[in-house]
Amino acid sequence: MSTISLDDVHAADTNYLVREAMTTGYQLFSLITPPAYVAFVIARRGRVAFSINRLLRATWVGGLSGTVVFGGWAYLRYAYSSAESARATRIKTAYNVLVVFAFTVISTLTIFFLKAAIIRRHDHATIGSILMAVLAPALLWRRASIVNC
């Protein structure tokens, strides 16, 4: 029978936390990039330089950048921290115990709803990505290149 060492547990915790951070980074940067890109292009080059193709490209490049930035930051943070702190963070993340709100909101009903927030966020992200994977090419069939849809 093999035993699981503390290093293996720390590696698994780090892996989980990095994946969660990468998902959050993709979601955040995919939301922030399109309005920032539109504002940048209109301010710098005017409306003539704006195109749907470039907006779609900026969206997926922004999401990829968020994945790399958040994943790298999380790896550096958790790989070089103690195994106990990484484990505590993983448990807080997995069960979504929001410490900031837990101290503010004492109601047990509200705390019950906060625990389901991360699952709801992942469900909404999955539903939105499936819908947009189908709708974006259908709506922008003639305007966007195949790489960006």
UniProtKB/TrEMBL annotation:
The lineage is: Eukaryota, Fungi, Dikarya, Basidiomycota, Agaricomycotina
Which UniProt keywords are listed? Membrane, Transmembrane, Transmembrane helix
Could you list the residue ranges that cross the membrane?
Answer: 25-43, 55-75, 95-114, 126-144
* Protein name stated in the entry: Uncharacterized protein
Species of the source: Laccaria amethystina LaAM-08-1
